[in-house]
């Protein structure tokens, strides 16, 4: 949160990274830093940036344009596939199919396979519900008892 650019190369050895937009209404950078210091955050936090529109950061442009859900995700081609993909984006993922804009807060992107795959999760998806997906990518046997994890 010091205003310097950060290269994603520093995360290249991670099997998975999760990128979440959280700060659209959280106050100034100083207020955010003060809050984060109070709750002992133990993950990287970066400056506020635009995630949508013509001023969107290159990172969020890349995430939005390369995450799942295109016509090829459906068994139908052409207009039917396009309609299904756009309907899925709009009503399930909360993404505007005309602009690829994401909801402002708590949209989550899981980046894996050395940055070649991106899975988008709607802001309404609880992070606990993402855990099975992450465990699958990491090859971790899922436990039915949360105390065993």
Outline the fold blueprint.
Layout (H helix, E strand, L loop, with lengths): L15 E5 L8 H11 L18 H9 L11 H16 L14 E5 L4 E5 L9 H8 L11
Antiparallel strand pairs: 1-2, 2-3
Q: Can you offer a commentary on this structure?
A:
The chain is globular. It has four helices and three strands; from the N terminus they run βαααββα. The longest helix is centred in the middle third of the chain and has 16 residues, at 78-93. It is 30% helix and 10% strand. The mean pLDDT is 77. β2 (108-112) and β3 form a beta hairpin. The chain has one domain (12-141): Glutaredoxin (3-Layer(aba) Sandwich). A three-stranded antiparallel beta sheet has the order 1-2-3, sandwiched between helices. It has helices spanning 29-39, 58-66, 78-93, 131-138, and strands at residues 16-20, 108-112, 117-121.
Summarize the structure.
GO terms for molecular function: peroxidase activity. One of its GO terms (biological process) is response to oxidative stress. The protein has helices spanning 29-39, 58-66, 78-93, 131-138, and strands at 16-20, 108-112, 117-121.
- For the record, the CATH class is Alpha Beta
The major pleated sheet works out as:
3 strands, antiparallel
Strand order of the largest sheet: 1-2-3
User: Helix proportion of residues, in percent?
Assistant: 25-40%
Q: Helical element count? A: 4
What is the CATH third-level topology name? Glutaredoxin
Gap between N and C termini: 32 Å
What string gives the helices and strands in order?
EHHHEEH
Number of domains: 1
Radius of gyration: 17 Å
Q: How would you describe the shape?
A: globular
Class by alpha and beta content = alpha+beta
CATH architecture: 3-Layer(aba) Sandwich
């Amino acid at each position: 949160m010091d205003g310097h650019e950060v290269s994603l190369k520093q995360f290249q050895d991670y099997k998975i990274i999760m990128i979440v937009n959280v700060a659209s209404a959280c106050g100034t950078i100083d207020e955010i830093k003060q809050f984060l210091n109070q709750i002992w955050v133990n993950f990287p936090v970066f400056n506020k940036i635009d995630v949508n529109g013509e001023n969107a950061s290159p990172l969020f442009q890349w995430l939005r344009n390369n995450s799942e859900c295109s016509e090829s995700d459906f068994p139908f081609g052409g207009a039917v596939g396009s309609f299904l993909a756009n309907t899925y984006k709009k009503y399930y993922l909360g993404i505007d199919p005309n602009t690829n804009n994401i909801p402002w807060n708590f949209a989550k992107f899981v980046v894996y396979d050395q940055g070649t795959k991106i899975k988008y999760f709607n802001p309404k998806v609880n992070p606990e519900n993402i855990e099975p997906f992450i465990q699958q990518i990491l090859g971790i046997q899922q436990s039915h008892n949360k105390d065993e994890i």
